[in-house]
UniProtKB/TrEMBL annotation:
Full protein name: U5 small nuclear ribonucleoprotein
Entry keyword annotation includes Lipoprotein: no
Keyword annotations: Repeat, Ribonucleoprotein, WD repeat
Organism encoding this protein: Sipha flava (yellow sugarcane aphid)
PANTHER family assigned to the protein according to its UniProt record, in alphabetical order: U5 SMALL NUCLEAR RIBONUCLEOPROTEIN 40 KDA PROTEIN (PTHR44006)
Length: 102
């Protein structure tokens, strides 16, 4: 199924591990989109705007928040159910895979 809506390169995407089937994506068009692949039409169900390109995105463990990192040098947490944003200024932990990628 094709999901359409970004106007720039998609830099990252992730799927929810728990809860409803959701996909999130981050793009050079300065947006983060949340998709429900069960819905017809392939359009995003939620879009968050950013001032700079977004390079990385993932769901939290309960899939009610989306965490992003972009060229604005900030890690942001979007609670998409409440349509709200929190900016994390203190990073206390990072996780790398065996290949060195997050």
């Amino acid at each position: 199924k094709k999901l359409k809506g970004h106007t720039g390169f998609v830099n990252s995407c992730d799927s929810a591990r728990r809860g409803p089937q959701m996909i999130t994506s981050a793009s050079d068009d300065c947006t983060i989109k949340i998709w429900d692949p069960r819905k017809r039409g392939g359009d995003a169900v939620t879009t968050f705007n950013n001032n700079f390109q977004v390079m990385a995105v993932c769901f939290n463990d309960t899939a009610d928040q989306v965490i992003t990192g972009g060229l604005d040098n900030e890690i942001k947490v979007f609670t998409y159910i409440l349509n709200s944003l929190s900016i994390i200024s203190i990073i206390v932990k990072l996780n790398l895979s065996d290949l060195g990628f997050t």
